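>> Question from a student workshop board

For tomorrow's exercise we were told to take the sequence and the ligand below, predict the bound structure, and bring the output to class. My setup keeps failing. Could a helper post the expected result so I can at least see what it should look like? The ligand is magnesium ion.
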Amino acid sequence: MSRKAVFVDRDGTINRDCPYCHDPKDLKIYEDTANILKRYQEEGYLIIIVTNQSGINRGYLSEEEFNRFQKAVLGELDKRGVHVVATYHCPHTPWEGCSCRKPNIGLIEQARKDFDIDLRGSVMIGDNDATDGELAKKLGIKCIILDKNRQGN
Ligand SMILES: [Mg+2]
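>> Workshop helper replied:
Here is what the output should look like for this input. Compare the format with yours to find the bug.
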């Protein structure tokens, strides 16, 4: 049976935006987002991170640095009882014309295939109308936009 998912943006949504986050010592988790994710998880939703990381192909951070920061994010979420089942990231710059950079649907399509997700009941959570909001609109799914300028605690 297919399952519902929460597709959640990372920088500015789960953690304070750095920007081009790469150093784990800059990691600050937004507790409100962790709480929202935990509630969805308890209702049976899969938690899946979908994140644009153009800093990789812009040469601002390496895949290794991305992975190291990502590991720290997952560790902090784990401590709060939030278990992310998968992370999909797009390393491309806007001018590469890829199909995975949000608001394109490539990352979600991949997740949908990998986890047999029922998009109809799924939700997008992000901090950016032009990427996360637009992506949700394309998919016809519910979207929660959080204020990236809120306080991390
Ligand atoms: Mg963001």
